[in-house]
Amino acid sequence: MRALAAGCGWLLEGAGLVGEWGAPDESVWGKSRGLDPGLAPYPLIRHLLDAAAMALHLWDAYLSENQRVRIAEGMGLAGEVDRARAVVGLCAGLHDVGKVSGFQFCSRHGSQYLSAELGRDRERMRAERFGHDVAGAQSVREVLAGLGFAGDEELRVAERLAEVVGGHHGRFHRLEDGIAAAFLGGVAWARQRMAHAAAVHGLLGAPQAPGVFKAPAAVLVTGLVILADWLVSQEDYLRKRQRRLEPVLEDHFQRSQRDAPGLLAEAGLARVHLQRKEFAQAYGIQGEPNPLQRSVMDELRRSVGEGRRGGILLVTAAPGDGKSETALEAERILSKAFGTQGYAFLLPTMATSDQMHGRVAQALVRQSGEEAGLTLVHSMAWLNSAYADEDLGAQSVLTCDGDEVGQGSGRAEADMRPQRWLRGPKRPLLAQFAVGTIDQALMAVLPVRHNALRLLALSGKTFIVDEAHAYDPYMQVLLGRLLNWLGAYGVPVVLLSATLPASVSDRLIKEYLQGAGHKTRALSRQTFPAPYPGWLYVDGASGRATQISPVRRQEQARARGMELDVVVEPVVHGGGGARARLAVIERLLSPIEEEGGTALVVCNTVGDAQNTYLSLRECFDQRSHDQGGSVQLLHARFPGEVREARTREVTQGLGRSGPRPLRRIVVATQVVEQSLDLDADIVISDLAPLSLLLQRAGRCWRHENHWARHGYPDVRGRPAWASGPRLVVLDPITGGGSTPQQWGEVYSEHLLSTTSRTLAGIEGGTVSIPGDVQDLVEAVHGDNEDFDWNTPGASDTQAWTAHKGKDIAERSMAGLLAVPRARSVSALHDLHHLPGEEDEWEVSTRLGADSVRLLCAYVHQDGRVTLDPEGEHLLPQAGVSAAGGAMPVSSVREVMRRTIPVRADWLKDADPASIAPPTSWTQHPMLADLRVLYQPVQAGSVQPVKVGGKTLRLDEDCGLVRR
């Protein structure tokens, strides 16, 4: 190895790449752990050149045109993208220069190959240990000065580049914190840092310092450096390169450039150009686009004009009006106009994300996008049936996290982080097309590790948010902060909503425009009222607002018009008599037993849903859900595989294409009120805030217009008793009642009481859809600070005060946690302003009780512990001899698909040992954090388990029951 290092000197010198510092000493290693122990470690200079080559390829083939433009502008190199490209390559090529330090002694195998000159400092440099990312941030400024970044402007740029180098492990550091000089070594070590940097700089064509390097652009470059580093750090690739090193570094660099496209494609990140189809063919929809969709296709293009700074589109329409397809048509126009490629389609829940993933997959296939990277983005996405076991396997990504003090909490966890980003559960946001929960995007503006990588992933796509009304004040602030960053990056945004208050949409639009460069004072004098139904588009560059034409808006209102009969039924929870809640529901559903039909009963809690289901099953059909009974139950407290199957059954039975059941009663919780494509003859709902009641009502007669034109499924129309769409609200407040105790804080008492009064005031008990929707939403959810202090009853005053206090507290909390707005960032450390080592699971995107995943296992009398009550499937165990507690992916999936999310406080009083997972799972990155409910099985019967004063039992038909 030392001979090779010496031999490279004259070859580099002859190529003009070696100056006063000489050739890079290839005994300085970059990768050791996980490689062939019989060979010398992988030289650092080779790894730096690999990363630089990959960064150049990512610039050419992965970044969108918009991202390249934004980075070049952020460097003051507008119109000089080639210069910006070279600087990005330099950032990647210097990312590990901090390894020319005491880092070299953190591996016994690596350090034994060090040259004698460098090895002499062994004892002094091992006295203290620091992360090589911090060492790189400290040393790269001196290195850059030696490369000519020496003027005042160049020094400021060098400081920003040092922040990028220091942030390549996903967390930015303060440059002023410093490290011990001894860790960086003496003259020989400084000379080698310069030699490594000079070789990279020379092979990149000696890029010059840009005039500036603004923070938002530096964040994107950091994300790209992280991605480049991980792609070239995969075990198989490094082992292959380790076995055959080209004698000449220039040849090595050229080979790295040739290898880069294959690595990108193998990671599923290569770009695919769709063959755009006409509307009906693209989405598999019969008939022509509706007026709203046609308006976007015809009129939005003119509104976008020649702007190049992005824009934000708000689409408002009633549930079932085809907003998803409207958004995808808008994406065609916006992506072409603003140079983005692909899109991220984000929704409020995992269930809605799963359904939308299937719809988007079909749309891509219809447009020759079979090879496009489409991924599902939520914490449990890998359990979805869309992922085969072989898709979830991942080779290791050989980072150095865990080799150094302060670099993560353990080797297994550290290795899994990039592995989960590049494969399976964590790659999704990086792929060209991503569908998932909004949480995955909101982490981009929380101070978690790799938030820069998330911003890189999002800034190259068109950003679509469905159900924009479904987020609490805390999440709305985070969404606004994310829109601010996307506005700074010129990313086109589409917001979809059926019930969004004007005050919320106005705030979100202004956040985007502020990010795009508009002054806060000027924006405070403007408002951006959105038509309903219709769309509003605001250009990022000019701030000019345009909207759907009045003619198309009226056409949409007529085409989708519906008179919704709203009936308020006073009920009593837990009591008897005619007003008892269950008695009222049974009375309302009695026509179904006699004449058939479909009904959706929406409950506010899982417990209420379970009790309602059992009562209706006894009344209408003795058979259980799994036995094919006409009464079905759907909520979030089923094991994942059961919930997925039940969601599929419900959507098929009440979907557009049928087959339509003769009679069906679906009892559900809030899981059905968003994005699930259901049509019931009647909807019965517990009292909820008015916007949610309208969402639930959107599942009533949803496809009537379509069926009226194209025929009902199975030629079976509505039953005679269903004379029109009807929403029945079970109101425990009207008539002097109160909210049931079991509802707890599910909904604000103020919103519930205001909704109750608003419903009572609806003239004639009829709501005109869409004409009355926005006024009703504003009446309950609008930004109205005027409280009627003359309202009788101290409880109303107390409820209003509690509601406003909670709103203010949530917004304040989000404001404290979120990263600063894009144009307010001074040092990149501002993106990690909280103390500690926050990782993605340590900062929440939602307020409320923390949740854990619970596995319900079964303990048999012979001591066996199984996944099933019959005792046929033993709990899988990690192989004793496998490193890191390895377990086949299929076994991990088998366990995780049976888990249930529950509130963490349910288990707080339990003996930790009584709910701990098997010992062999404790080193597994997914299984280690599970809680296990060990249910005894006696004489074939599953017994409940007492936990914290309550009992828990997994019922095959009702899901997890808590009593």
TrEMBL record:
Keywords: Antiviral defense, ATP-binding, Helicase, Hydrolase, Metal-binding, Nuclease, Nucleotide-binding. The keyword Thylakoid does not apply. Pfam families: Cas3-like_C_2, Cas3_HD. Residues 37-231 form the HD Cas3-type domain. InterPro entries: Cas3-like_dom, CRISPR-assoc_Cas3_HD, CRISPR-assoc_Cas3_HD_sf, DEAD_box_RNA_helicases, Helicase_C-like, Helicase_Cas3_CRISPR-ass_core, P-loop_NTPase. SMART domains: HELICc. In the central section; belongs to the CRISPR-associated helicase Cas3 family. In the N-terminal section; belongs to the CRISPR-associated nuclease Cas3-HD family. This is CRISPR-associated helicase Cas3.
